[in-house]
């Protein structure tokens, strides 16, 4: 796709994000450390992804005097992990946004067609009134992410951002093609997908590495 088509893609090159991502990729990183790193990366990425949140003036009284300060304004937030790997990113974001509500979308990728299949969905009732952060560590084919965004929009969601640790160009193209207006935040854009739909060089299966399954 054209460079302009990727104008809503933000690659976060902060040194801490890149350092932790390198450890995350390492085959020698065990499940406990992997989970901790995913949580930390999600927190760092959420810090950047919320930079555009609107502020409103308020007045507080300090021990010295009364002063004008700023607080978050506008819509509330919903964090929507794509099951199961997206669960690993939720706690890190809630450290920054403890009042956010959490919904869940269950999608799995058919091993033959590589297409997403929905098996579970539970969302906040006021989903249309919230800024939404859809989270999934890997943006591979992009099918699951695009399906999740489209499903959320059908439920009334309007402001949707997608947070992923690693993306393949094919996955970004898929989301951009089918989900106009969604901003995509990633820590790295890797080379390509292999014949099995895995990101290269990637980090393997994020869900298996998070939960110690094979």
Uncertain spans: none
| Structural class by SSE content | alpha/beta
Mean pLDDT: 92
Say what oligomer this is: single chain
In this structure, how is the largest beta sheet organized? 9 strands, mixed
User: Distance between the terminal alpha carbons, to the nearest Å?
Assistant: 35 Å
Rounded to an integer in angstroms, the radius of gyration calculated over CA atoms is 18 Å
Topology as a string of helices (H) and strands (E): EHHEEEHEEEEEHEHEEEH
Overall, the morphology is: globular
Q: Tally the helices: what do you get?
A: 6
The share of residues in extended strands comes to: 25-35%
Q: Count of DSSP E strands?
A: 13
Helix content: 25-40%
What does this structure look like?
The protein has 214 residues and is α/β, with parallel strands linked by helices. The protein has helices at 15-25, 31-49, 87-96, 143-154, 169-178, 206-211; strands at residues 9-11, 55-61, 66-72, 76-83, 101-102, 104-109, 116-122, 130-135, 138-139, 160-167, 183-189, 192-193, 199-200. The strands form three sheets. Strands 1, 4, 5, 6, 7, 8, 9, 10 and 11 form a nine-stranded mixed beta sheet that branches. The protein is globular.
């Amino acid at each position: 796709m054209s460079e302009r088509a990727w104008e809503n893609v933000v690659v976060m090159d902060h040194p801490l994000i890149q350092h932790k991502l390198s450890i995350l990729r390492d085959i020698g990183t065990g499940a406990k450390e992997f989970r901790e790193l995913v949580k930390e990366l999600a927190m760092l990425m959420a810090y950047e992804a919320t930079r555009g949140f609107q502020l409103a003036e308020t007045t507080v009284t300090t021990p010295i005097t009364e002063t004008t300060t700023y607080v978050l304004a506008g819509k509330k937030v919903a964090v929507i992990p794509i099951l199961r790997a997206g669960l690993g990113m939720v706690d890190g974001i809630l450290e920054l946004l403890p009042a956010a509500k959490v919904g869940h979308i269950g999608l799995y990728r058919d091993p033959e067609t590589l297409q997403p299949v929905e098996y579970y969905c539970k969302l906040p009732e006021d989903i249309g009134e919230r800024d939404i952060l859809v989270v999934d560590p890997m943006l591979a084919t992009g099918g699951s992410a695009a399906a999740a965004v489209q499903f959320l929009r059908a439920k009334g969601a309007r402001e949707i951002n997608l947070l992923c640790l690693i993306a393949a160009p094919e996955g970004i193209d898929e989301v951009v093609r089918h989900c106009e207006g969604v901003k995509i935040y990633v820590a790295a854009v890797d080379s390509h997908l292999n014949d099995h739909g895995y990101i290269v060089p990637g980090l393997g299966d994020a869900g298996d590495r998070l939960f110690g399954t094979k």
